[in-house]
Amino acid sequence: TGISRIELDRLLYCEVLGRTLLFHLSDGGVLESTGSMDDLARQLAPYEIFLRPHRSYLVNMEYIQNITAKSITVESLAEVPLPHGRFTAVRDQYLEYSFAGKKVVL
After folding, report:
1. What is the pLDDT of residues 55-64, one digit of tens each?
2. How far apart are CA 64 and CA 106, in angstroms?
3. Is the dihedral of CA 56, 62, 65, 70 positive or negative?
4. I need a labelling partner for 8 at 20 to 30 A (CA). Which of 31, 60, 62, 69 fits?
5. Cβ of 28: how many Cβ atoms within 10 Å?
6. Is 50 exposed, middle or buried (0-12, 13-18, 19+ CB in 10 A)?
7. Rounded to an integer, what distance in angstroms lies between the CA atom of residue 2 and that of residue 43?
């Protein structure tokens, strides 16, 4: 019912259910908006911090705790599913991002 401003460093991940975008925030809050994930991904493309592991999700790589062949776990312990065959591409993009930021990855 209006416009909300979201600081990108507070956005853990975003998911789409139908035509509703759900923005999951670092404080546990969830904001809803109508729209498409494709449009949101295009808007956030200039920010290399975001990873699109699945057509229905966009993840802030700063909040990733773990990546397995089946899912990504973020700091809130929410799990984002990884489609079959996407693990290598997602892992490589995350490692490239982490090493560019001089972060230690185990």
Report:
1. 999 999 999 9
2. 12
3. positive
4. 69
5. 8
6. buried
7. 19
Q: pLDDT tens digit string along 23-64?
A: 999 999 999 999 899 999 999 999 989 999 999 999 999 999
Please state the pTM of the whole predicted model.
Answer: 0.88
Distant-in-sequence contacts of 70-73, Cβ < 8 A, 24+ apart: none
Which pair of tokens denotes residue 46? 């200039």
Helix (H) or strand (E) holding 37: helix 37-44
Q: Cα dist. 54→2, 33, 80 in Å?
A: 28, 19, 8
pLDDT 10s digits, 4-23? 888 999 999 999 998 899 99
Structure tokens at 99: 């090493």
What is the three-class DSSP state of 39?
Answer: helix
Q: How many beta carbons lie within 10 A of that of residue 51, not counting itself?
A: 21
Chain-centre distance for alpha carbon 66 = 13
